[in-house]
Amino acid sequence: MGSFQTPMGMRSSTLLETSCGYLLQELQMIWNEVGQDQFEREKVLLDLEQECLEVYRKKVDAANTSRARLHQELAEAEAEFTHLLLSLGEPSLPGRPEKMVGTLKEQLDSLTPALREMRLRKKDRVNKFRAVQGQIQKISAEIAGQSEYGDLSSNIVVNENDLSLKKLEEYQTELQTLHNEKNERLMRVEKYIDAVHNLSSILGTEASMVITKVHPSLNELCGLAKNISNNILVKLNSTVESLEEEKQKRLEKLHYLGKALTNLWDLMDTPYKDRQSFSHVTGLLSLSSAEVSDPGSLTLNIIQQAEAEVKRLDHLKASKMKELFFKKQNELKEICNKSHMEIPLQSEIDNLINLINSGEIDHADLLMSLDQQISRAKEEASSRMTIMEKVEKWMLARDEERWLEEYSRDENRYSVSRGAHKNLRRAERARVLVNKIPALVDLLITNTKSWEEERKKTFLYDEVPLLEMLEEYNVLRQEKEEDKQRQREVKKVQSQVVVEQENLFITRPSTSTRRTSSRTLNGGFSNAIPLNRRLSLGLQQLGPNSVNSAPQGISFIKEGKKVHRQKMFARPGLVSHLRDETASVVSTVSGPQSP
């Protein structure tokens, strides 16, 4: 109370000094002058005191209200600050005192800057969350195919109770994942679009129309963000697959047409320059669908042109069927002639020609039949190749054998002339080859029998059974050997007769008799004397430098005589003629000796 009264006393002491005190004094003077009673005076003073109390009470209430508001503002600021710290995920704010000191206004003023900083941080964090969530919603909408429905950022709701950096990182991670998925989808879409462009260029179609048909946003001319939804990816995949199927169908069609063109060209011997106009079609025969990449290589126009060309060649083939038939027939004959096989009968060929003229036979079937015959002929020629090679060697050996016989009959074979040494070397080689003939013939017989057993048919050589030819050759060779043996015997008899006649000629002293004998001998041994002359002539031609080789030359002469006799005795009646001649010579020589 003392503390309260002291200010009141001070106020009352100074009241007179104020306008209130002056007014109260003036009021007392008025009451004194009027004669106002004391009761009225006290009542007025009491009213004045009550009115002053009311004024003071209002001022105190206002002060209490202001204090309470400051307490509330301070509490709310502290709560908001604490909430901001929790929502932002930060333990404290640097620079803020841990304990609040001073008056309420001082405490509030010290907290206000930190609170303002936290609010700014919250606002910045909320903007970051809104931006990240907006991008997440936008990319999610693009992936879902809703990018054309406008901006969805107005629908973003940020949870302000959790604005921590950890939550922001989670959103950023989600956003990065969506970015990766979007990029992957964009790459897939671009890959599909490139595939559509490539396939369309190959097939000759308009790529922009195909892409726009899938979705307008995929066409860059539309200026829209590309739709990368699952539905669009599925449509793009199905579009590419359909284009691949169309590419495969067209390639198969061109393969068929290319093979048909090649077959028709080969059948009709089409010139190379005429084939060049469709080289782009035949060039596809060895390529698979994945290897075809040239623009415009599978257009419908190319297929139509190839179909028209095949149709034209089919008509041309029908008109040239007879020519093709003769070509195939000549090919078959050439194969048969080359391998010395049996050639089809002319009557069968005439029947086929009649069928071609009448149109009663299918051209394709006829060509297929001829191709099959040619294939069988080639296969049989291949199986005969080993035997035919040996037959050729045998024929060559027989030619050399005949040449050697003719060479042996040549009286001037040992003369010193141009080419004589070459003939001598050839004769040596020919004798070696002729000596191999029996073994070669035996091997041929064995191989031929094996071939015939395997094929169940006769091995013909120029329509003659090869085994009969070989057996006949063996028989002739055996007869030739027997003729040689007989020639040796005849020569031996001739030599004996010549020796006897020469002895008789030497022992006769009479000149007339000698002359008669000489004339008789010259006439009777006209076949023997030239032989001795040839022998002496051959030795003279060899010269003095060939003394060492004389025995070899004599052996050549003997073999030449042997072959010559073989040829001579090969003629009919020659052996009997020589026998008669020998008998006449003997009778002539012995005639004058008889009494």
From TrEMBL:
The keyword Cytoplasm applies. Pfam families: MAP65_ASE1 (PF03999). PANTHER family: 65-KDA MICROTUBULE-ASSOCIATED PROTEIN 8 (PTHR19321:SF3), PROTEIN REGULATOR OF CYTOKINESIS 1 PRC1-RELATED (PTHR19321). One of its GO terms (biological process) is microtubule cytoskeleton organization. Belongs to the MAP65/ASE1 family. GO terms for molecular function: microtubule binding. Keywords: Coiled coil, Cytoplasm, Cytoskeleton, Microtubule. It comes from Pyrus ussuriensis x Pyrus communis. This is 65-kDa microtubule-associated protein 8-like. Residues 53-80, 161-188, 226-253, 466-496 form a coiled coil. Its main location: cytoplasm. The keyword Coiled coil applies. It is found in: Cytoplasm, Cytoskeleton.
